[in-house]
Amino acid sequence: MKLSFSTLACPSYSIGKILDVARLNGYDGVELRAVRGTVNLYELDEFKGSSLHATGRKLKERGISVACLDTSVSFSDKESLQENLESFKKMLEIAYGLDAPYMRAFAGELKGANYDEAVIWIREGYLRISELLRDSGVCALLETHDDFSRSERVLDVLAPIQSDRLGVLWDIQHTLASGEKLEDTWNELGEQIKHLHIKDAQAPLFENSKPRLSGEGCVPIPQSVALLKSKGYDAYLSYEWEKMWHPEIEDPEIAIPHYAAYMKKLL
Q1: Nearest to 256 by CA among 33, 3, 13, 5
Q2: What pTM, to 2 d.p., does this model score?
Q3: Number of domains, the chain
């Protein structure tokens, strides 16, 4: 298994500083979410045109891969389907330029919508992006998050589509907070899990429980790693330290090295 961290951990960093920190702390990859204070990466010069290719060269020179490119795309709002597809297309150009194998998208929050009806239009969103990706080397991942943290709901969206351009990003905190056991999540989704988010949080565990440094909260990280080892998972264990959303938590200079050191003892 390999280590990466989401750039939510260091939202103000430039791409150069992100890569330097990753290399210094022995990470294999980075999960691109926030750079220089924005999650709309397509607005930044370093992700446009010839500068995008230069950014790709920086990654290769430092031996760091893009583990996943995280979008803000969410298909829970029926009226925003086309807007979200356009946003996905913009991010897809970055994925191509940086050889990112995966792009994260959300099923989202239902906000009172009828579940059976919402699943139909959410599924349509994922069907549309699977068609965009049909001839590419990129796979879109539905994250276990919001009202789609439980396995059966993820499968309600993805199973009828049956596309090899779609998979699952397993956020372990969210499935546990939904009441689902680690083993049950793997048994339901294991073949589709391409990428993982690992983080720790205070007890009692809810989806939005306050973040804690790895090993200092109630998320069973050692048991999670042991399960993944036993199942032959060999992709990324990506650290999602949400400094961008929780500015009061420890700074990246503390959290990013801490996660690397903690996880290397478990691998």
Answers
A1: 5
A2: 0.97
A3: 1
